[in-house]
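Supplementary notes (optional reading)

For those who missed the lab, this is the record we used. Protein: Cobalamin biosynthesis protein. Length: 119 residues.
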Amino acid sequence: MIVAGFGFRSGATVQSLASALAATGITPDALASIADKCASPAFVTLAGRLNLPIIPVPPEDLPRSTPTRSTASLAARETGSVAEASALAAAGPGAHLLIARQIAPDRQSTCAIAEGATP
């Protein structure tokens, strides 16, 4: 399964999220983010437009170590990249990153792609 993990600010738009995903050049099987962000109207709208399921990741399931080390992400969520951590957690045990965190042009959202064996 290929999962697009997202990190985003509360004001991120559908366009911002779509731009971050487009920067990866990958079409995922599902979208994921930290659980409290998954009900965001922009995130739900993007999932609907792409006809993809959303995988909410509980904060305690986020890997603490990611290739990217954002100081803002570390301070807010205790992980180097919410996008990378969400993608890895949602893709399941043994998942690996295909694409590290990509940043939308407006800098309101990020997206990373992970692949795992989870169906």
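If you only remember one thing from this example: Residues 2-115 form a domain with the Nucleotidyltransferase; domain 5 fold (CATH 3.30.420.180).
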